[in-house]
Amino acid sequence: MKLGTVFSVFAALLVAASAVSADPGQTGLTFLKMGQGARAMGMGGAFSTVADDASATYWNPAGCIDVGDTEVLLSHAGWVQGIDMENVAIARSHGDHGFGLSFTVLRTDEIEMRDVDGTRIGHFRFFDFAIQGSYAHNIGDRLVGGVSVKALYEQIDEETATGFAVDIGGILNLPVDGLRVGACVQHLGAKMKFIDESFDLPLTIRGGLSYRLTVPFLSDESIVAFEIQKPREDDLKTHFGIEVGLVEKLALRFGYRTGYDNQNVSVGVGIPVNKYRLDYAYVPFYSDLGDVHRVTFGIGL
After folding, report:
1. For 9-49, what is each residue's pLDDT tens digit?
2. pLDDT in tens, 251-270
3. DSSP string, 191-226
4. Which pTM was predicted?
5. E-assigned strands of the chain?
6. Is the predicted pLDDT of residue 138 greater than 80, yes or no?
7. Which domains does the chain show, CATH number per domain?
């Protein structure tokens, strides 16, 4: 495929995504916007072009092509106000094909239920679940395309809502060694209905670039990434991330984001042991909500 054609396909993806997100509206299933994996969150969520591990099932399905042998990631996020999110992601690639499977659960502790006068009348729980399959394919020498299909479920007290969504992504490796750009349209689907109220999915467009380089006094590859994000219902946001590779692939990470009311900085660390990897990310919130701690355990099979 000629490079001009590759750029045309990539540009068409961005234009189509912008058209889809033109109508803001009310959205639900907030857990779809909370990110996956301690590595990505340590880099401030600037991960749609990095996406080279099993968390690509969330950030950009095209990244499944870079996983190689089978990888399993087990992630936990201790969110604010007693909210916990768990994720299992599995991915592998073979030749020109990449495959992924992901399960995500969000649950809360019991929450007090009160009437209009403020009198406590009981408790309820909040539960979200998503399962998705991802596929990536090499398109020519430099472009990779990917798609994810997911089933969604939400329960509040005894009421439920179900739906389906699609993610579409692409990653383009530029002629400059280590430099690539990418984009992903996430959570594209029809409205869901909860009791008598319909709501949109939190459709999000991500696009950015990343550069992999070897710093002379360090022994492993480092990554610098920048990303722009446009949620359906919110203003434009920017994400910046760095991963510094040290000896034996030990990694230190730093992230910074703009456009958020209660957060900007994040930090993280990755520790490998043979075929295993432990990642941790700390994301402080500048309010009374508390801070977020994320842990991911990776296994190479």
Report:
1. 445 444 444 444 444 445 678 789 899 999 999 999 999 99
2. 999 999 999 988 899 999 99
3. -EEETTEEEB---EEEEEEEEEEE-TTSSSEEEEEE
4. 0.89
5. 71-78, 83-94, 97-108, 111-114, 120-124, 126-139, 143-156, 159-173, 179-188, 192-194, 197-199, 204-214, 221-231, 237-245, 251-258, 265-273, 276-283, 292-300
6. yes
7. 3-300 (2.40.160.60)
